[in-house]
Structures are given as structure tokens and as C-alpha cells.
């Protein structure tokens, strides 16, 4: 690669130059177009359903909507489906990996695209690491903390700090290595695995919801100001909060360059996944209100335990099975959520190196699995370094943003707008 000195006017001309629309709308790509409608739908479900479902559902019923959570999700579904259709229009016009990076490059120029792309990559790396830590937490719950206790006893301590963990999280690191290898195998294999985990997640969520309706009582909807306990103000505030539970669908645009027919499949996948995830969240929230009166739900701040054991006072015979299903579902969510974050960040990283930095050699693909392998390895190494010392700092930030009373509904709406513009995750 040759470098040369350019003049200052040429420099400013280059940082505001825009990518030609014609090159962004073509369907020709070095990547393998192998993803079907089912793969794209599963990918979108992976990006929408998150760990916050378990914590947010109980808080939504307890503090904002009560049993009227049905109307809450009706409002949210109309808003989010409309937004997803707007995204579908952009994606079908420019079916390229990179989503917001490409859209910004075409409309605002190279400098804005460069900043947007690196923000997307940074947020994805942080969220991938945090999700891997969530997986480690889920497995430790299943083993009663055996792995964590062994790490604390046998691995060197890094000291007590709010920035780094006391010991490296080996389980999260192994989890990321396995997912990186799965992603290196190619889009079809990794997305098929994501399809399986997405199906497992939806099935378990339906099973949990059915359990709530079997064990609950319709009389729990009565009392404490009845069906709409917090009025229309609480309903609207809950709707703004619920947007977080069905956001993240914009990342399906990263898979458009590997879709068989992106202009037909992506709009369908967006609508199907948004409706599926909205229905799953609705059933979980409505099930909580059905099985336990909303004024008796225990706040997370009062008792830091999973809602499946504290908020749903099930019969003893069902308690262990219910908790186990919830943990398996949480583990399933972390698996395919981490996979889609790792894949999405790699695609954006590829485009930044190719178009903005000029390192097109890193975009070279392999004939057996046409993906940029070097970028996948480099990004996976970066994520491993982050997760090896990451604490619950990022998780606590998100949960604080969700749960604390002094954050008003306007904060959530403003943060969501900012998150959508900059390409954050849920």
C-alpha cells in the first residue's frame, strides 16, 4: 500500500465525500448469499430478545401498568412495526452489511460514517463482553457457583476494584472462543445454530407463560385500583420503557449482504420478529400479573433474586422446574445474542477498514467459508481481552437505567432515540 501527502483542501474534500448510491444498491458481493427467511427472522429475534426481559417484565407490571400491560404492548407494537418498516425501506434500497455505517456514508459523508462505525463497533464489543458475563452467571447459577468458587480459589487475584474483576472469568472466555470458532465456520452454520437457539428461547418463553396462566387466578386482576392502577400516565410511561424490550431489530441489516433475497426477505423477517418478540414479552408480563397481584410483586432493589423465584410464588412442585426453564432460556438468549453481536461488529469493522482506512487486504475472504477471517480473529481477540477483566459494571449501568425511580420516561425516550441513531444494543 502506497501513501502520499495531500493538501489541506483535498483532505477536507475527502472527509466529506459520500459513497455513490449506485455502488451501495448493487446485489454483487464477495460474501456468500446463503441466508433464508428463517435465518433472518432468527437473527432478528436474537437481536431483540435480551436478558432484560426477566428483570423488566416484573418492574413494568409493578410500577407502571399493572394488568393493563396488554394495552401497553399494543401501543409499543404499532410504534415499533412502523419503525421497522422504515428500516426495511432503507435495507432493501441498500442491501449491504454495515447498516448505519453504510447509510451514513451515503447520506452524510465519510467523516460522519467513520465516527458512527467506530461507535457501533465499540458498543458491540462492550455488549458482547457483558453478554458473555451474563452467560457465565447463568451457568454458575446452574452449578451453585462451583466454577466461580474454583476460580476465586485457584486463579491469581487482581484485587478489589469497581473497574476490573477480582479474577479472570474463564467460563466467559471459553464461551467466546467457541462462538468465535462457530462464526469462523461461515454464515450458514452459525446462523443455523442461532435459528435453533431462537426457537428454543421462544418455546421456553411460551412454556413459562402457559405455566403462569395454569397456576394463576383471574381474581389477581381485581383490587388495588383494579385493571389500570396507575392511570393512562403510567400506561404511557410503561410503553416508553417497553420499547427497550423490542428494540435491536436494526441489526438485521448487517445480514442483508448474505441474504438470498434481501429485498423480499428482510421486510418480512423484521415484521415477523417484532411481532413474535412483542407477543413473548406480552405473555410474560401478563402472566406475571395473572399469577400474582401486581402490588405484591417484590422490587429488585428490595430483594436481589430472579423474578421466577420471588415474584411468582408457585407451588413447590413447580418452583424448581420453573426456575430451571428460566435459566436455560437466559442461557439460550446469551448464546445467540453474543453470536449476532460478534458477527455484526465484524461486518462493520470490515467496512471501516475497507472504505475509510483503505486496508482492503483485511477484507479478503476464504473460498470455503466466504467471510473476512482476519477481522473475525482480531475482533474476537479484542473481546476476549475485555471480557477477561470485565465486571458487572456495564450490566449494572443498564439495569440502573432500567430500574431506578429517578429516571423518568422522557429519559428512556431520549436515550432510545440516541441509541437508534448511534446503533446501540438492548
UniProtKB/TrEMBL annotation:
Membrane topology, record value: Multi-pass membrane protein
Domain of life: Eukaryota
Chain segments annotated as transmembrane: 37-58, 70-90, 102-126, 170-189, 195-215, 266-292
Keyword Transmembrane helix (UniProt): yes
Name of the protein described by the UniProt record: Amino acid permease
InterPro entries linked to this entry: AA/rel_permease1, Amino_acid_permease_CS
GO molecular function: amino acid transmembrane transporter activity
PROSITE patterns: AMINO_ACID_PERMEASE_1
